[in-house]
Amino acid sequence: MTARLPTFxxxxxxxxxPYMHQADRRRFEAxxxxxxxxxxQLPVKPHAILVVSGHWEExxxxxxxxxxxxxxxxxxxxxxxxxxxxxxxPGVPHLARRxxxxxxxxxxxxxxxxxxxxxxxxxxxxxxxYPEARVPVLQVSLQEGYDPAAHLQLGRALAPLRDEGILxxxxxxxxxxxxxxxxxxxxxxxxxxxxQTLVDSPPPQRSQRxxxxxxxxxxxxxxxxxxxxxxxxxxxxxxxxxxxxxxYRQDDYLGxxxxxxxxxxx
Length: 266
Description:
Layout: E1 7-11, H1 22-25, H2 29-36, E2 48-58, E3 61-64, H3 93-105, E4 110-113, H4 120-129, E5 137-143, H5 148-158, E6 166-172, H6 183-200, H7 203-211, H8 219-222, H9 231-237, E7 244-253, E8 257-264
Parallel strand pairs: 1-6, 2-5, 2-6, 3-4
Antiparallel strand pairs: 1-8, 7-8
């Protein structure tokens, strides 16, 4: 029997930062160290990695089905060399079909997408955690509208994969506002709420608090658009009864932002 893997909600940082020249990467050192430690936190090496990224949304829950996913350069304003980078992990069509069947069994709308490639919500994490790109990877999209209940249900539907050697990661940012007024105060307030919700609250209360996340202190200041928060709901849904731990916390990201990443179970 394969050991049950934990799930993660991870901050993926800004753009293609792991591929930047060393001088430009320096401000991401704390994030990089936390990602480098991910493999050591697992009981076994995963057979594959499933990422729910804040950079892909569809009208339903699309599942990446390409055997060799291309790259999606979903960022702007970077030097030209960062639009030629590669993360050549193989895709997993049979796992895509398995994930689709789990979503269908849960009554969730879904389809396979054989053209979709890796976005930077995936390769900015995995280029650090699994730089050799040998572990197969697929993504599952968010659903338009960002309904918290639907994304908790997404995680619940995918939960059996944890016992099949599949590592489930929700990839986003615990604070994601490009036009902040007071990022230090807002991010610290929302980060405190996240800790109280994920680490200090019992599982039923944790899920309920996530359904009502928009009422949290500084919620809309931290997430004017919740695309980078909602992957958390998938990670929690897939490990709803498991304890949470903080695996990365930084209160000076870019000099003024508090960020956290979490592990559930394990």
